[in-house]
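The methods section describes the discrete structure representation at length, but only in general terms. Since the whole study asks how a given chain folds, the encoding of that fold should be made plain. An entry of this sort, consisting of the sequence and the corresponding backbone structure tokens, reads as follows:

. . .
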Amino acid sequence: MIYVYLNYPNRQATVHHDSTCPHIRQAHKQGQRTAKINLARISEELGKFADKQYTFASKPSRNDIWLEIDSRDADFEKAVAAYVLRLAGKHYKPFRELGLQTHCQSNGVSVSNVVAQGV
């Protein structure tokens, strides 16, 4: 399972592989939006991004979202995250041509590299 943080005004797309990463809990504000994407709900959730049901704006209730992606396949989860970012970029300029940055690995090792860009 990966956790992906998308922030609209700050042009951020960060992947967390470690569920115990303190940045995950720290970033959850009251009323935080979360999209849970798993094999049973993938079509429904991707459809919401494609149809602009998840909206973004420069106000606290709409400026970000956490994705919880669980397919039991790390490569597929990264591909789904990149696709969500591409879908969001079709409607919101700050997400266009933005790559996914990896913050932490599941073994607790922190890294900072580009996972996918323009997928």
Remarks:
- The longest strand covers residues 64-70.
- The helical segments are 22-26, 42-50, 74-91.
- The first helix runs from residue 22 to 26.
- DSSP finds three helices and six strands in the chain.
